[in-house]
């Protein structure tokens, strides 16, 4: 499998409410050694080179809406390395092709999304113009009768008489428990694409795990258990496992394919990371992009605190905030005794190890370029 070239960063200038797409060419970033390093050591500021965020490739501004107040916002969904679908607080949608540097007006959503999650299935036919499928769901589900909490953009022929494929918008059914009397609220805690692109699998707080058949549009309850990863789980075809973040911010690896058989997936391992200095306090969850061939680009936001300095309310004073880009690699262990979680437990199934290559640091000079999304 060829390596992915670009990591797409979306930054926000909050004063002007302008979103900028910046494409980081990883072939020009020194985050990977030519060969896998044999020794791992902790980072320090002195050992890291400074990373410059690339210039803007395209800018986006949400459509001013009198009904949104000050909540003007654009959500960005990565369909593939080059194709990004954007929707704003009014439901207006656009597909931007970074490879062609062109935009395509899309059908509007049935309902604007407040806090969506998404799963994408790129078109496997490279000669088909580069379509695919994008599934968007509100992460917080409520008993609303109107359409729009779960939708999809599909690149397909709208009917048998149409000769060309176009982008269509479809409102999709919610899991059946949402329609039952007494339902009030749930939260999508984890989600993934399974079956080579045939099913979506989602775990809902308090309701277990369900799979959605993309062909039939039907939901199936696979179990009361929850998927072992939090948020989106991404598939690594080279290793035939899914990776994602656990609740403790560690990278977890699991074979989720058993969920389609109604069996609870188990963790293959929890990849511990004592790579960063202990005085770097993490902010939020790591952002991970698969580069192909088991290689990952990991973004971590950290802060450091001033020693013996406190605000009037007694809170520690922040010295600096910065983002660390790390090139890492997932590899099968050379023997069955490989420890992957730092505690002596190697998990079940495939035994893997994560090797960190190099890291670089990004500091925003004026705070005007806040990274909103990594695609």
Automatic annotation (TrEMBL):
It holds the Pfam family DUF1668. It comes from the Eukaryota. This is Uncharacterized protein. It comes from Urochloa decumbens.
């Amino acid at each position: 499998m060829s390596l992915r070239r670009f990591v797409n960063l979306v930054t926000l200038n909050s004063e002007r409410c302008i979103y900028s797409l910046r494409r980081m060419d990883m072939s020009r970033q020194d985050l990977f050694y030519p060969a896998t390093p044999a020794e791992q050591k902790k980072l320090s500021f002195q050992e890291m080179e400074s990373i410059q965020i690339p210039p803007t490739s395209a800018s986006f501004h949400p459509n001013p809406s009198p009904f949104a107040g000050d909540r003007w916002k654009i959500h960005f969904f990565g369909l593939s390395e080059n194709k990004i679908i954007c929707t704003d607080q009014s439901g207006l949608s656009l597909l931007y092709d970074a490879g062609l540097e062109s935009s395509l007006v899309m059908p509007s959503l049935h309902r604007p999304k407040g806090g969506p999650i998404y799963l994408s299935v790129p078109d496997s036919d490279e000669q088909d113009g580069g379509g695919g499928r994008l599934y968007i769901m509100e992460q917080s589900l409520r008993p609303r009768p109107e359409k729009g909490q779960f939708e999809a953009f599909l690149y397909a022929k709208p009917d048998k008489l149409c000769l060309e494929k176009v982008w269509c918008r479809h409102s999709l059914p919610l899991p059946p428990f949402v329609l039952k009397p007494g339902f009030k609220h749930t939260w999508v805690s984890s989600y993934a694409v399974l079956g080579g692109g045939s099913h979506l699998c989602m775990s809902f707080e308090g309701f277990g795990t369900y799979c959605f058949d993309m062909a039939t549009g039907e939901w199936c309850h696979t179990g009361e258990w929850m998927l072992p990863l939090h948020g989106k789980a991404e598939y690594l075809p080279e290793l035939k496992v899914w990776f994602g973040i656990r609740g403790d911010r560690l990278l977890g690896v699991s074979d989720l394919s058993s969920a389609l058989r109604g069996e609870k997936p188990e963790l293959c391992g929890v990849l511990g990371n004592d790579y960063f200095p202990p005085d770097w306090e993490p902010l939020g969850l790591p952002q991970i992009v698969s580069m192909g061939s088991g290689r990952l680009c990991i973004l971590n936001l950290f802060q450091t605190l001033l020693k013996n300095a406190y605000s009037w309310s007694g809170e520690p004073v922040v010295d600096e905030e910065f983002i660390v880009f790390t090139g890492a690699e997932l590899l099968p262990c050379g023997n069955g005794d490989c420890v992957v979680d730092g505690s002596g437990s190697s998990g079940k199934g495939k035994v893997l190890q994560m090797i960190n290559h190099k890291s670089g640091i990004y500091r925003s000079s004026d705070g005007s370029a806040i990274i909103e999304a990594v695609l």
